[in-house]
Automatic annotation (TrEMBL):
Record carries keyword Hydrolase: yes
Domain Chitin-binding type-3: 224-270
CDD domains: ChiA1_BD, intradiol_dioxygenase
Family recorded in the similarity comment: Belongs to the intradiol ring-cleavage dioxygenase family.
Superkingdom classification of source: Bacteria
Disordered: annotated span: 39-75
Residues making up the signal peptide according to the UniProt record: 1-32
UniProt cross-references to Pfam families, sorted A to Z: CBM_5_12, Dioxygenase_C
Protein name as it appears in the record: Carbohydrate-binding protein
Organism: Streptomyces lavendulocolor
InterPro entries (UniProt xref): CBM5/12 (IPR003610), CBM_sf_5/12 (IPR036573), Intradiol_dOase_C (IPR000627), Intradiol_dOase_core (IPR015889), Intradiol_RC_Dioxygenase (IPR050770), TAT_signal (IPR006311)
Amino acid sequence: MDGHPSRKTVLRAALAAGVATPAALMGVPALARTVTADGTTNGAAPPLTPSCDDGDDPTPPQMEGPYFKPNSPRRTSLLESNTPGVRLTVTGYVFGLACRPLSGVLLDFWQADVNGAYDNVGFRFRGHQFTGEGGAFTLTTIVPGLYPGRTRHLHVKLQAPGRPVLTTQLYFPGEPRNNTDALFDPRLLMTVRDAGGGREAAFDFVLDVPQTPGPGPTTPPPGGSTWAVGTAYRPGDRVTYGGAAYTCLQGHTAQPGWEPPRAPALWRAG
Ligand SMILES: [Fe+2]
């Protein structure tokens, strides 16, 4: 990769803007999305985290392992009352081959408890969810314990509507067993930082889903409707605002404060 900011970096910035909460807009730090070579965060580019640069590097698959169970409950939090363990949130986006976010993607997570054990009777530490309009997901859980013979990991299956299932695993940086676990793959390292007594992790998936590139050769009609709060805009959409024309750069739902001239990550003039 050469020296200029990767498309991923730009895309992430724009997407972060696209899903930012008002708190984030007021300057609260967003989730850590930078990581050093060993996986710790200190502002450098993430060399090991999978990128969505050209969309030709889908997230690699990994074995399912012996403990997947179908019919997990639909939930974004795997925490139950008094769940022991260090709190962990995992956030990220699911992209297709053109690096555009995919909505409606099923993510089914399962993991070990704090002692490294899987619940094969009930559904503790099992849950599925779907990405929203912007392709984002959030999992709230604990840092899994160590299962014998393995390094620390999460299991996940992903499936875009009508597409094959991707089964894979996610890993934690700085784990001693990463060096000895034959399944470990640095392309599946999350970025992780300490936050509020717990951990915040980030990972973006790229699924083998064909997409038409976003603001591409399709010529949008001139003009377009007036920008309006609550409208879901897609890349390439044209609007007018304050008498000027703008073209949407990233899919998002318009919110107050995101008027085109104030949101250069979302709109370019012209
Ligand atoms: Fe496992």
